[in-house]
Design a protein that fits this description.
Length: 77
């Protein structure tokens, strides 16, 4: 999914809260980058986050695939 979708100010970042934007940058880029956004107004924050998250492969939780179930230990019949 990350190959086909990018978070932008129009399609996602402008629609969520500032806290969600900061958390997205924290997850996708770094704690330091997220801290730099904290004092911005929402439109500027969304645009800055869009630039920071570009080509990082970050996806919101709702678009992430669930973790694969480990097949290391076979189940008893």
């Amino acid at each position: 999914m990350a190959a086909h979708w990018q978070p932008t100010a129009v399609n996602y970042l402008g629609q969520v809260t500032k806290a969600v934007i900061v958390e997205a940058v924290r997850q996708g880029v770094s704690e330091e980058a997220a801290a730099q956004l904290a004092d911005l107004k929402k439109p500027a924050m969304a645009e800055a986050a869009e630039r920071l998250l570009a080509d990082k492969g970050w996806l919101p939780t709702v678009l992430r695939l669930p973790q694969a179930v480990s097949t290391a230990a076979p189940m008893a019949a």
